[in-house]
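#struct-help
A.M.: can someone run this one for me? Single chain, 296 residues.
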Amino acid sequence: MMNVAVIGSGTMGNGIAHVFAQHGFTVALIDISQPALDRALGTITKNLDRQVSKATLSEEDKTTTLGRLRTFTSLQEGVANAGLVVEAATENVDLKLQIFRDLDQFAPADAILASNTSSISITKIAAVTKRPQQVIGMHFMNPVPVMKLVEVIRGYATSDAVTEQVMALSRQLGKTPTEVNDYPGFVANRILLPMINEAIISLFEGVAGVEEIDTVMKLGMAHPMGPLQLADFIGLDVCLAILRVLHEGLGNPKYAPCPLLVNMVMAGRLGAKSGEGFYQYTAGSKELVVAERFRR
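D.P.: on it. Structure tokens below:
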């Protein structure tokens, strides 16, 4: 179990790899793109440097952590010795199902197969494998090195032993694992995404502007980040995908995504990662600027 494979080297994947490596695990970071893997290692190094500058990590520990990381563009090679695989690929159900079919073929028979999905059914993912009792959800929060929660999702067939192992592993990482059952959106997004959607509806209907909505929630509800800024941070395409999972899975119209959100995603305004969502984002600037379309 000290050998961990992480699939996907984006924001979540490199964060998960960082945390496992920092806590003594040997990590195989897997992606189909070598340039993406190189960027991920650069991000991990930069984040470790930040920890060193804050005196929460020694220079020696940084070097040791980086030494525990290896990169692979072959899934078969990357998972060959894994006791735990954590899939952190794009939130696309067809992609995830194919990855788990491949994992079932290539990962050791006793390996635990976990998904970092924020909304897709663990039961559905497990059903494409011959080891559904060993499939589980490990939903880390972004940014992974900072956020303490791991939402541990039991599929219909996930065994007690696997659940206990994953809860214990999460604690080894300095996280607080919380066990939930496999229903659309789990807990975090079942509660969070309707709030974000309602904030977008409030903007859409002219109740208040972007800055005003976020200010009310930050100062009135003690949220560290307003819901519209948070939506930009998550990615508006990801928010839309989760809302559609909730709407389809629960059949309740209250989960229907706001038309404004749908239009923004179709127009490519995805939030921070595209440079514009409800706010505008400029590389190197931390100033929060409302997108021109929403300025009053």
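A.M.: thanks! The mean pLDDT is 96.
D.P.: also worth noting: Residues 83 and 110 are 7 Å apart (CA to CA).
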